[in-house]
Specification:
binds zinc ion; alpha+beta; 4-stranded mixed β-sheet
């Protein structure tokens, strides 16, 4: 089937509908996260970088990619496998950085979400029996891109229907969109432990934040973290997954007024114990979506979750670890000298 025919195919229409449904479910997709693809005769339509799955019905969010060539580059360890734009079949939208695992997997349909239940569960070891029962493979955390795609291929089994990506999310495959979607729903239900606490912000906090450049999050699970000291301590530890780092910074921080973010890369989720949570007033919709998701993840975490290392976290931000240590050292020196923090 030619790319033009694929665009017109009923299966592509089904994929767009599924993409929009998943994109509008905050327990599956937050902001521009996640991606879906469909292949035919070595060509592939894959979600473009920076687009939102929730827009799939109203906009063209797909980029056409030579999947066969990209998969070959990946298998040959060619550095171009980390540059999805080099495999574009037409000018326009740039393919997602996660295009490589879509290209690498043979199945016609691939869905990838940041399912909060799967993500939370992926931070503790999964037994082989549990994975086998679901026909899933486990892939430990790797930075999204060609390296992660190679690890997915390494872990893949002939009868696998999907992969749990450690500290990241879920991949499922199918011969059809309906098959892949049914598998995704089954895995999500399996890992979901039920609803989590929700809480309103302290109305005084909402008022006190006026004019500070920060605005309180509304009622929800992340606001509820502020009222639960144990969960709050879990949230304010090292980062748990890549989109958290990209949209909210290396670590959410607990603070009082005035808001005092930590030194280093910008941090966009401020927690006020027993009062609520806040993001910068000018926060993007993606930042707000990720901030609102944090509570849904943290309340579902196992007791001692695996976290990203400092190196893994800084590498997502293109921050050099040495530069970061220098910023921390300068802040400490200023603090000891009684200067500005
Ligand atoms: Zn992802």
């Amino acid at each position: 089937m030619s790319l033009a025919d694929l665009h017109q195919a009923a299966e592509f229409a089904a994929l767009r509908a599924t993409a929009a449904r998943l994109g509008k479910d905050p327990l599956q997709i937050q902001g521009p996260g996640g991606n879906v693809s469909i292949k035919s005769d070595g060509d592939m339509l894959v979600k473009a970088s920076g687009t939102w799955l929730s827009d799939a019905m109203e906009q063209d969010i797909f980029a056409p990619v030579d999947a066969a060539a990209m998969a070959a580059a990946l298998r040959a360890s060619d550095p171009s496998a980390d540059k999805p734009a080099e495999f574009l079949l037409a000018e326009g939208l740039r393919p997602s950085i996660e295009t490589s695992f879509h290209a690498a997997l043979d199945a016609p349909v691939v869905l990838h979400t940041h399912c909060v239940a799967t993500l939370a569960r992926s931070t503790a070891p999964l037994s082989a029996a549990e994975l086998n029962a679901l026909k899933l493979v486990f892939v430990p955390y790797f930075k999204p891109g060609a390296e992660l795609a190679r690890e997915v291929l390494k872990a893949w089994q002939p009868d696998a229907v999907g992969a749990v990506l450690g500290n990241h999310g879920l991949i499922v495959v199918g011969d059809t969109v309906a098959e892949a979607e049914a598998r995704l729903d089954k895995v999500s239900r399996h890992f979901n432990t039920g609803s989590v606490p929700q809480h309103d912000p302290d109305p005084e906090l909402v008022k006190d934040l006026q004019g500070t450049g920060w605005s309180a999050l509304g009622s929800g699970a992340t606001t509820a973290l502020a009222f639960n000291p144990e969960a709050l301590a879990t949230l304010t530890g090292p980062a748990l997954f890549p989109d958290q780092v990209i949209f909210l910074g290396p670590e959410p921080f607990a603070t009082d007024l005035p808001v005092a973010p930590p030194p280093g890369p910008p941090a966009s989720l401020a927690m006020f114990p027993c009062r609520g949570a806040a993001v910068p007033e000018n926060a993007s919709p993606a930042c707000v979506a990720l901030a609102e998701m944090m509570g849904e993840v943290v309340f579902r975490l196992p007791e001692t979750p695996t976290r990203l290392t400092l190196e893994q976290t800084l590498s997502l931000l293109d921050w050099d670890a040495e530069k970061y240590r220098q910023v921390l050292e300068n802040e400490r020196t200023a603090r000891l000298a009684g200067g500005p923090q």
